[in-house]
Design goal:
The complex is a heterodimer of chains A (415) and B (168). In chain A, helix 2 (44-60) runs parallel beside helix 3. Chain A is built from three helices and 29 strands. In chain A, the strands form six sheets. In chain A, strands 21, 22, 23, 24, 25, 26, 27 and 28 form an eight-stranded mixed sheet that branches. A five-stranded mixed sheet of chain A has the order 2-1-3-4-5, with helices on one face. In chain A, strands 8-7-6-29 form a four-stranded antiparallel sheet, with no helix packed on it. The termini of chain A are far apart. Chain A is 11% helix and 47% strand. Chain B has five helices and five strands; from the N terminus they run E-H-H-E-H-E-H-E-H-E. Chain B has helices at residues 8-16, 37-59, 77-89, 109-128, 153-159, and strands at 4-6, 63-64, 95-100, 136-140, 161-167. In chain B, helix 4 (109-128) links the parallel strand 3 and strand 4 (136-140). In chain B, helix 3 (77-89) packs across helix 4 (109-128). The longest helix of chain B is centred in the first third of the chain and has 23 residues, at 37-59. Chain B is globular, with a radius of gyration of 23 Å. Chain B starts with a strand and ends with a strand. The chains are: A mainly beta (415), B alpha+beta (168). Chains A and B meet through strand 5, helix 3, strand 8, strand 9 and strand 25 of A and strand 1, helix 1, helix 4 and strand 4 of B. Strand 5 of chain A pairs parallel with strand 1 (4-6) of chain B, so a sheet runs across the interface.
């Protein structure tokens, strides 16, 4: 019996931290948190937008049972409002304008009616209120000692189709609340951040011969990087930004190439007469990519030096896109051959070490999975009932959130 | 302890990015006044060339494909033969751009590659029929160049295609 319990313990420990294991957390086991607005005087519309954004962000960090009621209070009041007296945590904030008309927010986090955290935030315009809201949620998550949600502060870049052969490239926050069109008036697709600082991005221009361009978003300078007949897409950028994986087709044959940013030289990585696309760095010497070499799209890996190819996914008959983070691969699998059903493409997560698979989505067309840099979350595009949304999956909390795009259809995205 | 968190760096990047929108393409030649007889002639010649190109494009039939396939369907063979004939005879001095397209089933790179393989299949067939390979270029537009946007099988079938564009 003793041995049995030791085995049980060892098995449970071996699964601890495995993202392919579904985490079932009952809402009522999470600590409660209420939000109190102590703003004295500010534009009412912005006030309410900020409150909603804050509640949404606090929900997304998934560590509280958040009360969504709007309540007013004096910032220096010694007690929380009576309706919140049973709340474990209360986040109290006030918005105010300074002499430069900047958007200022001061917060205090109360635990059992005692202040445990206080901070101040500032943005130069109130139209950036959502970035303050994301920063507050990030800081509270840090205070609670939870794994970092750094991705919450990162910017999303996406392209959207406006009319046939016309697109816009847009920079937004992760909720699509803030949107700034950065490239318009052409046919530009597949934007990809060129560095972890998010100061530069690659995109494909199809206005003439397919060309990879790089845009410095600080200076607005654009330069052509490399062109190819047929296809030219940047699929992944190395951690040090010095190498990129591109899909090119100089002879009409799509293959994965490794492009050295400094030397400007490209090396062919894959070599198959069918389709090889979507290269992703698994490590310095291994590329994961999508290929139809078995007669249907599936996920493979290839060593760059030896060329040894290995099949990575053994489930599903159409796995046409993936994203890699450490031992984990999230991939898009076709669920049905009925293109008009309500469940056509779903995302699955697999560990290359255990082969366990976890289905992450259930309805609609779910594609373009992108791991956050820390692997904590997956961003993806969902198209369902004629609406395009960006979704976030919190792997360790088993929660999905959707942020719809008001107009247009998202073509691709990166964060 | 109070920390003032300045978001100005992140925000400044977004503000500065307002300067970086791509300039719309301006056709400079359209603004140049025509002041000499020679210019008028070249203008007329250009119009004549454009008319010829438009005429050839009208004779070229779009090639359609089955779902998730890039082989030429039997019912498309006659159109392809006719296209090859036009390209060899009337367009032998012009460049042919093959535009591969897909339905909206997926917006990833694989879909773009599928569009390209469709264009490649058409190009191979044209070359096999005697067309000059150096005069044929290809591009894939994936699902981003739909001619039909309804969510029906017939509509999607119209989007799985290779279009011909004639370039001077």
């Amino acid at each position: 019996m003793k041995i049995f319990f030791i085995w049980l313990f060892l098995i449970s420990m071996s699964f601890a931290g495995d993202a392919t294991i579904e985490v079932i957390k009952k809402v009522d086991t999470l600590p409660s948190l209420a939000v109190e607005d102590a703003t004295v005087k500010y534009d009412n519309a912005i006030k309410m937008l900020f409150f909603k954004s804050l509640v949404a962000d606090l929900n997304v960090i998934s560590i509280f049972n958040v009360d969504g009621h709007y309540r007013n209070v004096d910032f220096s009041a010694s007690n929380v409002v009576v309706e919140n007296k049973d709340m474990k945590y209360v986040l109290r904030y006030r918005i105010f304008e300074d002499d430069s008309a900047a958007f200022n927010v001061e917060i205090k986090l109360l635990k059992d009616n005692s202040e445990v955290l206080s901070k101040s935030y500032k943005a130069n315009k109130n139209e950036f209120y959502m970035f303050i809201s994301h920063a507050i949620a990030f800081d509270i998550n840090e205070y609670m000692g939870e794994p970092s949600v750094e991705w919450m502060k990162r910017k999303v870049v996406f392209s959207k189709n406006t009319t046939p052969k016309k697109t816009e490239i847009v920079i937004s926050d992760y909720t699509l609340t803030y949107q700034h069109t950065i490239v318009s008036g052409g046919f530009n697709i597949f934007p990809k951040w060129a560095n972890k600082e998010q100061t530069s991005l690659y995109y494909t221009s199809l206005d003439s011969k397919p060309t990879l361009k790089q845009l410095d978003i600080k200076t607005g300078q654009t330069k052509a990087i490399i062109s190819s007949d047929g296809m030219m897409i940047c699929s992944d950028v190395s951690v040090d930004s010095k190498k990129i994986l591109v899909t090119m087709a100089p002879n009409g044959q799509p293959d994965v190439y490794l492009y050295n940013v400094d030397s400007k030289k490209s090396t062919k990585v894959t070599n198959y007469s069918g389709i090889d696309v979507g290269g992703q760095f698994l490590d310095d010497n291994t590329v994961v990519f999508v290929s139809n070499r078995l007669g249907y799209p599936n996920i493979f890996s290839q060593k760059i030096d030896t060329g040894v190819v290995e099949q990575m996914i053994f489930y599903g008959k159409s796995n046409a896109a993936c994203s890699v983070n450490g031992e984990y691969i999230v991939y898009k699998a076709r669920e049905s051959s009925d293109a008009f059903g309500n469940n056509t493409f779903n995302l699955h997560l697999i560990s290359t070490k255990t082969d366990f698979i976890r289905r992450l989505t259930a309805t609609g067309v779910n594609e373009f999975p992108r791991f956050s840099k820390d692997g904590d979350a997956i961003l993806f595009i969902k198209n369902y009932m004629s609406q395009s949304s960006i979704g976030i999956i919190r792997l360790n909390h088993d929660k999905n959130y959707l942020f719809p795009l008001k107009q247009g259809k998202i073509q691709s995205m990166d964060w | 302890m109070k920390n003032v968190v300045l978001l100005s760096v992140a925000v400044a990047v977004l503000v500065f990015s307002g300067c970086s929108s791509k300039e719309p393409t301006v056709d400079g030649s359209a603004q140049a006044p025509v002041v000499s007889g020679e210019s008028s002639k070249s203008s007329m010649a250009s119009e004549s060339s454009e008319g010829r190109i438009a005429g050839i494009e009208k004779k070229l039939s779009t090639i359609y494909f089955d779902f998730d396939k890039f082989n030429i369907r039997p019912d498309q063979q006659s159109n392809l033969s006719s296209d090859a004939s036009v390209i060899k005879t009337e367009a032998s001095d012009l460049t042919i751009k093959l535009e591969g397209n897909c339905d909206e089933w997926g917006s990833d790179e694989y879909n773009f590659a599928l569009g390209l393989k469709r264009a490649t299949t058409v190009k191979d067939a044209l070359i096999a029929s005697g067309a000059d390979a150096s005069k044929v270029t290809m591009v894939s537009y994936g699902e981003s160049n739909a001619v039909c946007t309804e969510k029906t099988k017939d509509c999607w079938a119209k989007n799985r295609r290779v279009d011909f564009k004639v370039l001077p």
